[in-house]
Design a protein that fits this description.
The chain is α+β, with helices and mostly antiparallel strands. The chain has 2 domains: about 1-50, no CATH class; about 50-80, no CATH class. The protein contains 1 helix and 5 strands. The protein has one helix at about 5-15, and strands at about 25-30, 35-40, 45, 50-55, 75-80. The strands form 2 sheets. The chain has a 3-stranded antiparallel β-sheet with strand order 1-2-3. It has a two-stranded antiparallel sheet with strand order 4-5. A hairpin with a 2-residue loop joins strand 2 (about 35-40) and strand 3 (about 45). The two termini are about 35 Å apart.
Length: about 80
């Protein structure tokens, strides 16, 4: 698939729900202050992260295979800052 323009991304998101929640413009500040930008920009869409993270930790000293991570090597974390 080729790179899609902001107009295509906007149309597919608004008409077909391709990105939810969708932000049609570039957001760099909120009422709480500066944020990492998200939303449509020229030929792309900057995404937002969830507040759910998987943090890698090798507490079991296992051999790490980057193509086949062991689920026991991750800690699930939920919060606004990670």
């Amino acid at each position: 698939m080729s790179i899609k323009s902001d107009k295509w991304i906007r149309r597919m998101s608004e008409q077909h729900g391709m990105i939810e929640p969708f932000e049609s413009g570039q957001v760099r500040e909120t009422d709480k202050g500066k944020v990492i930008s998200y939303g449509t920009s020229s030929y792309g869409y900057d995404v937002r992260c969830s507040n759910e993270f998987k943090i890698f930790t090798n507490v079991h000293s296992a051999t790490v295979d980057p193509k086949n991570f062991d689920e026991k090597s991750f800690v699930d974390f939920t919060g606004d800052v990670c």
